[in-house]
Amino acid sequence: MTNSRPFFARPLVWIIAIAAVLATVAAIVATRMYVSSQNAAAPEEFLSEDVAEATTPGQSSGSADAIAGQWSIGEGSEAGYRVDEVLNGEDVTVVGRTDDVTGEVTIDGSELTAGTVTVDLRTVTTDSSRRDGYFTSRAIDTSANPEATFTVAEAVDLTALADSGTAEIEIPGTLDINGQSRETTAQGTVTRTDAGLRVVGAIDVTWQDHGVTAPDLGFVSVEDAGVVEFALDLSRV
């Protein structure tokens, strides 16, 4: 005997349809819960978390001699990147960092005249070892280009730092990542501390400019642009 009931009147069809809807809703809810937890756990930007800690009242001297000289980047310094992953249409903030940062800065009078910051990209880590493996082997060939370097290109006036103990700065320079260099500008704040100088800031980066391959797996992709962040503790050489 032929079943004359319409297709959508059959119980099994409705069960399958309802199950599919519930599965879709569950996936959306799970994605949003994951995104919310990941974004909440992401480290704050250096600019927002470190300037207040570094500022030391009474450090101003009004003299360029207080800041002039050769400075070395040392213990306590960090650098890394911040980028948005797109997971099923939701933005997830990913932060990778390392304390393997070296370099030197020269201040002549009240001007920053030279400086180099070098970061070992092989030691940059996030909250995911799988992501880190992709970063160090496919996104960037760290076996051939293990370091990223920022080099100061023009002198920067630091009169405000000598006078008041802190200064907002823009540093023109060259950023080398993955063996490819681009002119850019680092923006941040430099502050005198009991131990020396504290410099925190960021550089906007378009990954393709440095030949960095951002993954796109369909359900998850990485934005084309991100930020290189740094927090540098400098002491006199």
For the structure shown, list the relevant keywords.
2 domains; Lipocalin; 237 residues; alpha+beta; eight-stranded antiparallel barrel; 12 strands; 5 helices
Task: Explain how this protein is built.
The protein has helices at 11-41, 46-49, 51-54, 129-139, 159-164, and strands spanning 69-73, 78-87, 90-98, 101-108, 111-120, 147-152, 156-157, 166-177, 180-192, 197-206, 220-222, 225-236. The protein is of the alpha+beta class and 237 residues long. The protein has two domains: 8-40; 44-234, Lipocalin, CATH 2.40.128. An eight-stranded antiparallel β-barrel has the order 1-4-5-6-8-9-10-12. A hairpin with a 2-residue loop joins strand 4 and strand 5 (111-120). The radius of gyration is 24 Å and the shape is elongated. Mean pLDDT is 82; it is low at 25-36. Belongs to the UPF0312 family. It comes from Brevibacterium casei. The chain crosses the membrane at residues 12-35. Residues 70-235 form the Lipid/polyisoprenoid-binding YceI-like domain.
Map the helices and strands:
Layout: H1 11-41, H2 46-49, H3 51-54, E1 69-73, E2 78-87, E3 90-98, E4 101-108, E5 111-120, H4 129-139, E6 147-152, E7 156-157, H5 159-164, E8 166-177, E9 180-192, E10 197-206, E11 220-222, E12 225-236
Antiparallel strand pairs: 1-4, 1-12, 2-3, 2-11, 2-12, 4-5, 5-6, 5-7, 6-8, 8-9, 9-10, 10-12
